[in-house]
Amino acid sequence: MNQQPVEVVPVSFQSTTGDRNKPFHMVYLVAMCRAVPVNDLLDRASQRSDKMHSLSTLLTQEMDSHFPPYGRMQMPRPADCHTSALQTPNDKEQALQVSESDLMSLARSLLQAWVDPLAVLSTSAITLPHPSKSSISSKIQELQEHSKSLGDGLDILSGKMGPSAQAISFLPYTGGTDLGQDRVTILNKFNFLLSCLRRDSHKIDSFLKVLRCRAAKLQPELC
Amino acid sequence: MKKVGEVVLLWLLILFIQNAAGEGYSPPGKPTNISCRSPEKETFTCWWKPGSDGGLPTTYALYYRKEGSQRVFECPDYKTAGKNSCFFSKNVTFVWVNYNITVVATNSRGRAFSDPVDIDVVYIVKPNPPEEVVVNVTEDKDWPFLQVSWKPPKMADTRSGWITLFYEVRLKLENKNKWEEVSAGQRKTLQIYSLRSGGTYEVQVRCKPDHGFWSEWSPSSRVKVPEYFPQERSMWILIVVFAAFILVIFIWMVYMNFHSVKRYLLPPVPGPKIKGIDKQLLKSGKSEDIFSSLVVSDFPPTTSNYEDFLVQYLEVYVPEERELIMDEGKDLQDDSFKTENSTCDNDSGRGSCDSHTLLTDKGGGDKEDGQQSDQEGSQAEADTKSQEEALEEELLACSHENLQSSNISNEKEKVKSWPSLFSPLPQYSLSPVNRPNPPKTGQQHCLSDSLFTPNSMPSYFTQPGPSTRKGFRSNYWECSFDHKQSHPLHPQSAAHEHLQAQNDLNTAHVDYMGAPLDVHVLNVRPSEYVEVQRVSVEDGVLLHPISPSQEDSRTLSHQTEDYSRVRMVNNDNGLLLLQRDAIEEEKSMCPYQEDVVSRASITPTLQNSVTGINTALPILDEMAASGYIDTATMFGLPTH
After folding, report:
1. Residues of A in contact with B157 (CB under 8 A)
2. Interface of B with A in 72-111 (CB under 8 A)
3. Do A214 and B161 touch (CB under 8 A)?
4. What ipTM was estimated for this complex?
5. Model confidence at B342, in pLDDT bands (50, 70, 90)?
6. pTM of this structure
7. Which of B138, B145, B456, B510 is deepest in the core (most CB within 10 A)?
8. How far does CA A104 lie from the centroid of its chain?
9. Domain spanning A102-222, CATH class
10. CATH number of the domain located at residue range(s) B32-123 in this protein
């Protein structure tokens, strides 16, 4: 991540909960190859995460439009999501106390945790016993693309933010590649995964937008 | 007794009381429609719709569970948000946590549970309307605009990025009903232009989180736009000046091209022309002549007649002289055209002059019709047709070798395609008639140069042209006439001369007519005119102007020749000649015809070269029938 020959090391971001007012300073210098400013990078990243969450919301709505009502009784609760182990803030105060590096680390961990489940969803969507499976499949593929490019962007961003931002918590997906055998089970599992994805994508989006406003000293009008 | 009555009364009272207590009382109805909203993602409120209360005082309680825990909580605040609501404060609000909420209605008769709902606070965000909406009218060079600014709702923390809001502004004129909505993105100011001068506007603003619901519209802010009419007036002045300028230019252009415009808008109406009718004759009042002119004895023309006609119109000169003729023809044609152009017939507009339309229209059809119709003297219909036919024929005659004949039907094109004679068809038609002095040379050219031998003046040409004939025909007449004789073209006087000339020219037409009438008679049979007389048997079409003198000598000699009528002139070089078997019938064909015949006989030599004619031969039969040969077609002789 050291393309610029000259770069001022940014001020560190201690992950102390009491330092919520620590300014987010990032100084960059224009090198031979001009680097994109961090706030601009964060802006782009938050736009992509926004798009991801919108897609997942559309997916859940599309699933519900034809989902048989009786199947919902057995829907697992969101607490069973494979990412529930990750400790994330539960209200605004908590969220605003998290340091930038931790916020970035959380976002990246969540994003990484969904790479495999998205692949499972993608393969299952093709044979999903659902009338809108083609539309669902295309949206999932789009999600995968956004996820991939967002991951790359966050890699670059975290590189500018220090080592603590680059730590990723490992959240393995243990659901296997098969969603089930019978139609109800498959649809239930599919729905459950989509609801977990919806929430996690919203978390990623929120964290990035908080980061964006913290970095937007040059563009206060956005926040 | 009294005690029994009291007991009964007491019993009745008890029953009554019991009944009274039970009537209309029932357990409460189930609460429904639980909906929750969070204005800032930090607190939220839930409302429900109570069911029937069963006639008893009913209390409502809201219980909730958070995901992952079985512990049930009750709503902490039933009052802040009003009736039938529950307000969750910050302390009890958690995001990214599912709440399972149930409302229970209770009265003394029982209780009712609502259906549980699951909510996540982050998905139910509906902010308050934007606040402090300020609308200013800003003057900017006499073009005022509105400057709208606002602030986010107090509770929403947009500064930290916890909530991202998008704004929307709408405005309308005070007395109208249609709102105009403008999106402002994440900005907090907006400029609105294109205002109605003097109008009063109402402006409202609302906001929406990135993933949530739109807020309500803010209260209206009113503003009045000052008058700025003078600016519009200057714009109108500019528009008027520009339009006037355009108008002046347009008028000037029309003035410069007045005549062509006039011609385009009011095309000259072609005067009626009856083939074979000599106007002078009509004027002279000699009915006999007139009628005789109308009556064509030989109509429908027999084969021999056809031949005559053909001969008259087209005399395809045998190749040996071809080159010369062709060369001459071009020159002659040009001259003839020029001269003819100058003498355009002025009666009835320019129809006779601008006969190319006539020619084109009539070309094909007339040929067919001409013979049948006109010969009988049905001038009415044949007039125009005959005119065209005549024109065409004349042209054919003139164009001789340059006939490109598409075929009768395509006269127009053919005419145009003809390199020599017929290309300037309109000119040709125009000039001749009114030429006071038919340019002999010119006419002669046209007649003789290409295909016509000097003797083979078509009868048409002999007609006194200019005065009576319109355009084309007269041209022909003149052409021929002059060519032969330098007679002044007068219908009456010239009639005889024409006849003679025709005779000289071997104009079959004259013979056909049988009338002293000159060319006009021929006009009566438009088809005839156009027809190409039979041309050489095989494939030679001899068109040659027959000089009067020569014609005489020839008249009788070739009567028995085969005439094939030029059916049509191929585009390239084919002259469609109808082969006529009954050449012998030519009989009284004018020497002109015979000349043609003779030519035709010579054509065998030409045949080889006249490929077009070969092909044309079969068509010529048809042509013969129709009696018309489109000169254009006819003249498509190959240039051998």
Report:
1. 92
2. 90, 93-98
3. yes
4. 0.82
5. very low
6. 0.52
7. B456
8. 10
9. mainly alpha
10. 2.60.40.10
